[in-house]
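Quality-control log, excerpt.
Job 1 of 2 completed; input and output follow.
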Amino acid sequence: MTIEPHVTVPFLSLARPATPVVVGEIRRDVRAFAERHGAGPDALAAIELAVSEAVANAVVHGSIDGADTVLVEADVEEGELEIVVVDAGPGFTPGPVPGLGLGLGLMRDGALAFEIRDRPSGGVEIWMRFPLGE
């Protein structure tokens, strides 16, 4: 007997080249997914801002000349939207990086929960949870 895989929660998985044009595309796709699953105006604004910042960071810091992929996965569980953004870059570095450094704070401010970590296999993973229905 063959058992077919079955996902029991709403799920979105996007893998795109790490180029600037994908920031808007991924933001729109995640917004549409969140909206379909009950995200209200305040939640949508926080989700869009956080996803834009996370994907932009993956493009700028997690890729060499757009040759890598940005992976974004989202699912809905118990009235909350969980989003994970993954890049294949070098991970966090001890020195300064270009930019104002505001993006991580913007992602964290709108989220119920937020974590960022280096991946053992390389790259960085940003994990965020947002309330739906607000």
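Job 2 of 2 completed; input and output follow.
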Amino acid sequence: MRSKTIIIGVVFLSLVFAGHASAHSPLCSCLDNGDGTVSCEGGFSDGSSAAGVTMMVKDAAGKVLVKGKTDRVGTFVFKKPAGGAYKVVFDAGPGHVLEINSKDISK
């Protein structure tokens, strides 16, 4: 009976930790402010703060045009690149990177 209890305990803990690991997905949305700037707001699906997350704006060739970090509330504002497509990269570390293409940023 003891081994059955141990197995049930291990399965339970595995499910708890597996659920915890997947509950921390990155979230980021960007909005063209219409004044030549773009605002991005980041966070995590479990409500964790995205303060200090690395943000990059890259051109179509992948060259970094702007690099910075989100502020204390998870916001990053940058001057919209002139001419052509670009992408915004929210980089909170391995497994927590999002890319937003300029065509998907609405006004």
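Post-run check on job 2. The chain has one domain: 25-104.
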